[in-house]
Design brief:
elongated, two-stranded antiparallel sheet, Arc Repressor Mutant, subunit A, alpha+beta, 2 domains, 5 helices
Length: about 130
């Protein structure tokens, strides 16, 4: 099966409206491929210029320039955010070893941070 045929099959299962977006797992099941293969197929189709868009609701094929612009802006924001924190990570020394423990932060209990043994002891009331 050539690339054009694969794209036709992919487009045949994609809804054409954002409000009808379908999840990756549902679409990959319909196509009989893994979610990873589905993401790769979508990536390849996007590289060819097809307007296959996605958000937290799922995937769809669009013909709306407004939706395309919104999608591109979201993807750029994600790329900039990833680039920003990876640059910060490169500048910092790794903090590993016995003196480090991961604990929840106070403002965001679901997020964690590393603290040294001394800070942990102060936090727990030991001197």
């Amino acid at each position: 099966m050539n690339v054009r045929e694969r794209f036709k099959i992919l487009l045949s299962v994609l809804p054409s409206k954002r409000e009808n977006a379908q999840s990756m797992s549902k679409l990959s099941n319909i196509l009989g491929i893994t979610p990873r293969e589905f993401r790769q197929s979508v990536l390849n189709a996007r590289k060819e210029g097809l307007w296959i868009l996605s958000d937290n609701k799922g995937y769809w094929e669009s013909d709306s320039e407004e939706e395309l612009e919104e999608f591109i802006n979201r993807r750029r924001y994600v790329a900039k955010t990833i680039f920003s924190y990876t640059q910060t990570m490169k500048k910092r020394e790794p903090q590993r070893g016995k003196d480090t423990q991961i604990v929840p932060t106070q403002s965001f209990p679901s997020r964690t941070r590393k603290i040294s043994r001394k800070k942990r002891e102060r936090h727990n009331g030991k001197k």
